[in-house]
Specification:
Elements: E1 2-8, H1 16-21, E2 23-27, H2 29-32, E3 36-40, E4 46-50, E5 62-65, E6 70-75, E7 78-85, H3 93-104, E8 110-111, E9 116-118, H4 122-130, E10 133-140, H5 172-175
Parallel strand pairs: 1-4, 2-6
Antiparallel strand pairs: 1-5, 3-4, 5-6, 7-9, 7-10, 8-9
């Protein structure tokens, strides 16, 4: 088995011709979020990946094997829920609200300007539909947002200045409703959507 213990984010610094010739591995998010796993590349070689703990591998990253060979990572299509706003009964801001509520539940989310993606979860799908969002099942690559302080996928590598001074208000302080708490009355709407959420 060949060992790979170096990762080049998005193949940074490599010539296009080297990337084109590189073997590939197609991996779903469940595998790519692990720092240690075994896989088989497109040339049929068994590869043991040993990266620093906490390292997530992204589609487009390049693994460097102990013999110097390159293995380009492809994000494999996998079951996901694609969440979009309902243009008939909502606004694009509904996606921001959904991302906030999903983030409170520590759900990995892929953020796009016009949609969100999460791994399948019927409870979350029902919650999102109750917020008048459109939720559809799909088979697509999944690249959830990295942590705010993550070394790969989440940061820029530069500072934006000092931390804010003074009290920081919780987002629900403005709405008057604590996250995850029931309001004690029904928030269902009587209008029909005319389409499947």
């Amino acid at each position: 088995m060949l060992t790979a213990n170096k990762l080049m984010p998005q193949g940074g610094g490599l010539a296009a011709v080297l990337l084109k010739r590189a073997a590939t591995v197609e991996l779903d998010w469940d595998v790519r979020q692990k720092s240690r796993f075994d896989t088989t590349d497109s040339q049929g070689r068994q590869i043991g990946v040993f990266l620093p703990r906490g390292t997530a591998v992204r589609g487009g990253d390049v693994l460097v094997a102990e013999d110097g060979s390159l293995v380009k990572v492809v994000a494999a299509p996998q079951p996901v829920l694609v969440i979009t706003h309902c243009s008939e009964h909502g606004t694009p801001f509904d996606l921001m609200r959904a991302a906030y509520h999903l983030g409170n539940r520590h759900v990995p989310i892929e953020l796009k300007p016009d949609h969100l993606k999460i791994e399948p979860d019927h409870v979350l799908a029902a919650m999102l539909r109750s917020m008048h969002l459109i939720v559809r099942e799909a088979e697509e690559a999944f690249e959830p947002e990295g942590g705010a302080y993550g070394a790969h996928g989440g940061g820029h590598g530069h500072s934006h200045g000092a931390a804010p001074v003074g009290p920081v208000m919780h987002p629900d302080a403005y709405s008057g409703s604590p996250a995850g708490h029931s309001h004690g009355h029904d928030h269902d709407h009587d209008h029909s959507h005319g389409h499947s959420h």
